[in-house]
Write a structure and sequence with these properties.
The protein has 258 residues and is α/β, with parallel strands linked by helices. It contains 10 helices and 15 strands. The strands form 4 sheets. The protein has a 7-stranded parallel beta sheet with strand order 6-5-4-9-12-14-15, sandwiched between helices. A 3-stranded antiparallel beta sheet has the order 1-3-2. A 3-stranded antiparallel beta sheet has the order 10-11-13, covered by helices on one side. Helix 7 links the parallel strand 5 and strand 6. Helix 5 crosses helix 6 and helix 6 packs parallel to helix 7. The longest helix has 15 residues. It is globular and about 60 Å long. It starts with a helix and ends in a 7-residue tail after the last strand. 38% of the residues are buried. The model has no long low-confidence stretch (mean pLDDT 87).
Amino acid sequence: MRREERQQLIVNLLVENKTVDLDDLADRFTVSKMTIHRDLDDLEQAGVLRKVRGGATIDAGTQFESDFRIRERQGNEAKLAMAETALELVEPGMTVMVNDGSMAAVLGEMLLQKRPLTLITNNAAIMERLKGETGITLIALGGIYSAKFNAYLGVVTEEALSRLRADIAFISTPAVSGRLAYHMDDNVVRAKRAMIASSTRTCLLVNHQRIGHTALHVMADLADFDAIITDSAPDAAVLEEFGKAGITLTIASTQDPT
């Protein structure tokens, strides 16, 4: 088996299980542990995973978020539910900002239901899907392309955002703890903050599994958002904490209506 094929199979296992074990991988592919170490090193360098003792994981850490190619294959039901709920905040004729991320990419495609719209985004997946669509005025933000986030980031992105205004911005985050939203990448944080500053209203999108976690950089206070949407109710203690802080959490239903 070629190295590229083996590494793709490792990625597939990570999508299914979130973690892989070094010994199991060596047995599965009938190769040495050193070969698996090199495979994991390659994938870690590419930003796909992070190595842990005895294996690897795609679970987010304070300085790690898995590659876009991993995230776009995970939690589709939750993403659809949150996107549908977020869509209720959009009316035809609006100017909408959507940030990077696989969750945002799902919402970006759904926005076709609300055309005509002006859509501002640094999300390459949305750009590719919506380019040429009638009823969508697409403003694609330039900058330095990040394969890890499948988005354009940096000074050029931030400067463009400072000269634009939107009715609403949809911002996703991989970590929420207490009253704060976090992200592990400083370039992504700056782009998200620029979108928040350039929008009349803002909506935060966060998977409930990411609530109770932190990352390297504080992105924003939850009070900065007009709406916060998640896919399932977090622990009662978290809901109580939000209530005391006056933070309203909207729970998107992942169940089909009966």
